[in-house]
Automatic annotation (TrEMBL):
CDD domains: NAT_SF. The lineage of its organism: Bacteria, Bacillati, Actinomycetota, Actinomycetes, Propionibacteriales. This is GNAT family N-acetyltransferase. The keyword Transferase applies. Keywords: Transferase. It comes from Aeromicrobium yanjiei.
Length: 322
């Protein structure tokens, strides 16, 4: 008999137990865990989302599985973003199913009608435990993402930039004069990037959320370097982000977006090359950069491959009704 209980992430011992399960379930190089401080901040309620965490215990009271549900409050309010994690030694005993049932109940209590989760598997495999679990529990595949890595140090192509545009970079807080435009770039991603049939809405981003996000990054020790392209009129035509965790040798390529009116000028590639050049000091000693793109996003995949990224895994976004 599996017993599932809610976790108070503000309780040090309770969170440590939850994080231990999470970390032991994410041992593959292409699907590594967030740092503990990052995971804890991500699971703390704020104005933009209600978060819940649970732990499952076996008949002996041993913690054997965990899970989380994140429910946005200002966008995508029909969806509960769920994650189930079971260390390998505790799988195939019904613990993950008990966790999922608890998370779906939490979603219902918050008025959610759709659950969305992810499964990641190696590029040379057809499936794995996460994918099999999702499909057995009624989830269907909505969209497939390709996970790519760039081994460091890397030789990037020379920077070629349309002379009508300029590139600039900052770390830490966004310059005040660009704050509203940058928030709008962050807002646009779901609509402008390929997505599945679920039809994710654009996330709510405004100046206040950008500042809150920056404060969270500082709190967890993650350096975010943002590079932007400025159009001839001085407005922001696009951006890209390189995220540097406070520990370890990983780097993550996060959002990259060019406004539709400014596409066709090679800005996506130019932004990424410029970002890597500007981050030379932060990249030193790091092992790789990891990025995710929809498998159908052939343009951005071509940009990444031009930089030397190679595919290591697939990531499926799975949905089901609650």
């Amino acid at each position: 008999m599996t017993r599932v209980q809610r976790v108070d992430v503000s309780d040090d011992a309770a969170f440590a137990e939850l994080y231990g399960l999470y970390a032991r379930a994410h041992t593959r190089t292409f699907d590594g865990p967030y740092l503990a401080i990052e995971k804890r901040v991500n699971l703390t309620d704020d104005a933009y989302g209600t978060k819940a965490a649970v732990v499952a215990r076996d008949v002996h009271g041993l913690a054997v599985a965990g899970g989380t549900a994140v429910m946005a409050l200002q966008d995508n309010t029909a969806i509960a973003f769920v994650e189930v994690f079971v260390p390998p030694e505790h799988r195939r005993r019904g613990h993950g199913s008990a966790v999922l049932d608890a998370l779906l109940d939490i979603g219902r209590q918050h008025g959610r009608t759709i659950a969305l989760g992810e499964a990641v598997w190696a590029v040379d495999q057809q499936t794995d435990a996460g994918r099999a679990f999702a499909e057995a529990r009624g989830f269907t595949l909505d969209i497939v993402d390709a996970v790519r890595e760039l081994t460091l140090p890397a030789d990037v192509p020379p920077l070629v930039l349309d002379p009508a545009y300029t590139l600039e970079t900052w770390r830490g807080p966004c310059p005040q004069e660009w704050l509203d435009e940058y928030a709008d770039l962050r807002r646009m991603l779901n609509a402008e990037a390929p997505s599945g049939d679920i039809g994710l809405e654009n996330e709510h981003w405004d100046a206040a959320r950008v500042r809150k996000d920056e404060a969270d990054l500082a709190r967890v020790g993650r350096i975010m370097q943002v590079s932007v392209a400025r159009a001839p009129d001085g407005s922001l035509a696009g951006h890209t982000q390189l995220a540097f965790p406070g520990e370890g040798d990983e780097v993550y390529q996060w959002d990259t977006l060019v406004r539709p009116a400014h596409r066709g000028h090679g800005l996506g590639l130019a932004l990424k090359i410029h970002a890597m050049q500007a981050a030379a000091d932060l990249l030193e000693g790091r092992r790789r950069i990891t990025t995710w793109n929809a498998a159908s996003n052939t343009h951005m995949i071509a940009v990444n491959e031009r930089l030397g990224f190679w595919q290591s895994a697939w990531a499926g976004e799975y949905v089901r009704t609650i």
